[in-house]
Amino acid sequence: MKASTIDQAGPHGFASRERPATAALLDAPIRWPRPSLLEAGLDLTGKAADGAAALGLESVGDLLDHLPRARREARTVAALVTGETATVLVEVRTISQRPVRRRGMRPLVEASVFDETATMKATFFNQPWLAGRYPPGTRLVLHGKYEGRSSFKVSHHAVTDATGAADGAVSHYAATDGLSSTQIFALMSAARPLLTEVSDALPALMRAGQKMPDRAAALGCVHFAQTAAEVEAGRRRLAFEELLMTQLGLLRRRARRRSGDPAIGLCDGPSLTGRWLAGGLPFELTGDQRAAIETVGDELGLRIPMQRLLMGEVGSGKTVVALYAMLRAVEHGHQAVLMAPTETLAEQHFQTIQRLVGGENVTLALLTSSTPAGRRNDILGKLGSGELQVVVGTHAVIEPTVEFASLAVAVVDEQHRFGVRQRAVLDGKAPAGLVPHVLHMTATPIPRTLALCAHGDLDQSRLRELPRGRQAIETHVAGGERERERAYERIREELRQGRQAFVVCPLVDEPDDSPNAIVARAATAEYERLATGEFADFRVVLLHGQLHHRDKQAAMAAFAGGQADVLVATSVVEVGIDVPNATVMLIENAERFGISQLHQLRGRVGRGEHPSLCLLFGPKGSQRLRALADHTDGFELAEIDLEMRREGDLIGTRQSGLGEFRVAVIPGDEELVEAARTAAARVIDGDPELREPEHALLAAALAAAHGVDRLELDRPIPA
Ligand code: ADP
Ligand code: MG
């Protein structure tokens, strides 16, 4: 077995030598190695088999890919404390069965075990056969409880290496009821010889360039290494490979779009946009806006479909850039659509656009699911005839009945909230054989490294500079009744001067099951309390997602029009409300919101000429709230947010954050992300479909990692 194993294992003789590079062969699905001992099932029965299945471990290959979560320090025997649950690395000195008097119980096994610090008695229950299996000299990893008096009750056990790790650490695995971490370690040790079967997908040159071990060696390090440094070397290699797969998938998607159906080249000189930029805008563009407009203009002029992500904080002026792109379509006699994830946002964009278009003669319409049928039919008719040039709306704009005469530009706001499929439908709205140029927008500023992972298939522009005249927002963390009193008084002062205020609550209603135990402020109750109490002298309105559309509109309109002084709301105000006269935002239970969400909420104030204030009610010690108080730059806060999500140096832990990496840890592996991006770009630039023989294993690994054509990296970004 050993010999044949080695014969099959060498990846480099593959396609280049053994397989003729004919198209038919190269187009065939590639599985390697074929057949492989790694596909053998695990030899388990009963609870352990169920446990393995629950962990997704079916084959030896799955097992070897099941990376340890962490290396936990093994305790020394001398250091054990009575009552402690611990893992120890020991050697068996003597071992024997001892009958138990009670009926129905199997004999115990007792072993005298030792490490370099002390000797103790280890007791194994219900497994009389162990006495024969673990002869003196066997090295064991034992997990269990130290009962005191040199006595250890074993709950899980496994044979370890001859020596154990030099730094006294033990790999710990994600486990289930049926299959413990220690059992997994035992299986792993048994499977260790099969590491030679593991093939390496990285082209030899790339691996050499990165100075990284091959995959088999990396797995060996991660499972069995003697030192933490070796584990890290193995982990880095596996992380690089994981990040490389992500980048290959993203860049291949980008390449496919660029070489697929073309877009309409909008390359005539400016007419409408020229006038509009020169004199139609009520303000001066920021440098970032100008740069973005220039880039977008260049890309729209090509037949290669634009796929650009415009990142900019709330209020950074993305809509102007989007409108420029749309007006480019209009001045070429084509149409444009802007799609937003909520009605509130769509309405907001519509108003901003109406205002920004100014005196220019552009036909615009708003289309959402609450557009009345008559109006809707009118809009659909005019879109079909081309009479309507720009439509703004929710996903209602991509329903099957919506047909455009000639859609050339699409803007997708908060693009991470839409799925790949919805965007594909949007593509289908362009004339047959064409796709629209697409400008994606997001107000969630994320660090560059994460943007490469989350949106690496899109070209990116950032608006960092806030438009001139923006006021910094003073932010305080407040808690306790006194501060609450002071806060309300401060808000009343603002209101008396004619300003307006937001009060944001995390919930709509108090939870039904515990009406008395208010765990978080609920908007409805808070509205009633404030309207009749603290703000009884002012006009207070309520806004939350469960209200009837009519009531929502009424509340928004009242607040926007200045007929309401205070808007009590849930986080529905997070995006899309632009009321420059609002100068205070009070956020209840602020600790329930994420950093980026709080930052977005805060962006609803400070939009006018008056200095603004944000009051975060929550625990004073909260690092997150402190960060908000100390920083106003969204990109900076994004870095801090990321840092706080760090889960330590754990291996194999799925990050709750972006990308969902199994091995890579961000922050931490930024430099690996960059390296993977560069390596992937080099591959895709020369061989976008990975058809070259030297990329055959890479193609197979990519298919295994992401599915042949599928790469679902566009799940919503958690707050
Ligand atoms: P975003 O969509 O990025 O949140 P908007 O494009 O809606 O930002 O712009 C927010 C507000 O700022 C709008 O009222 C817009 O008219 C205004 N605005 C945009 N760009 C500028 C600028 N360069 N100078 C002044 N005001 C601007
Ligand atoms: Mg906007």
Secondary-structure blueprint:
Elements: H1 2-9, H2 14-17, H3 23-27, H4 46-54, H5 60-65, E1 70-73, E2 85-98, E3 108-114, E4 119-124, H6 130-133, E5 139-148, E6 151-159, E7 169-172, H7 181-191, H8 204-210, H9 215-224, H10 228-259, H11 272-280, H12 287-300, E8 307-312, H13 318-331, E9 335-339, H14 343-357, E10 364-367, H15 373-385, E11 390-393, E12 407-413, H16 420-427, E13 437-442, H17 448-454, E14 459-463, E15 473-478, H18 481-496, E16 500-504, H19 523-532, E17 540-543, H20 549-560, E18 566-569, E19 582-587, H21 595-602, E20 612-617, H22 623-630, H23 634-644, H24 670-686, H25 696-706
Magnesium ion (MG) is lined by residues 318-319, 352.
What's a quick, concise take on this entry?
With 719 residues, the chain is an alpha/beta fold. It has 25 helices and 20 strands.
| Strand order across the largest sheet | 10-11-9-12-13-8-14
Low-confidence segments, given as residue ranges, are 1-21, 514-519, 647-659, 708-719
Shape: globular
The major sheet is characterized as:
7 strands, parallel
Strand content: 15-25%
Mean pLDDT: 84
Bound molecule kinds, no repeats: adenosine-5'-diphosphate, magnesium ion
Structural class label = alpha/beta
Helix percentage: 25-40%
Distance between the termini: 52 Å
Radius of gyration over alpha carbons? 31 Å
So how many helices? 25
> How many runs of DSSP E, i.e. beta strands?
20
Describe the structure in your own words.
- The chain has 719 residues and is an alpha/beta fold.
- The strands form 4 sheets. It has a 7-stranded parallel sheet with strand order 10-11-9-12-13-8-14, with helices on both faces. It has a 6-stranded parallel sheet with strand order 15-20-19-16-18-17, with helices on both faces.
- Helix 9 (215-224) packs across helix 10.
- The longest helix is centred in the middle third of the chain and has 32 residues, at 228-259.
- The radius of gyration is 31 Å and the shape is globular.
- The relative contact order is 0.10.
- The model is unreliable at 1-21, 514-519, 647-659 and 708-719 (pLDDT under 50).
- Adenosine-5'-diphosphate is lined by residues 283-286, 289, 312, 314-320, 352, 443, 467-468, 578.
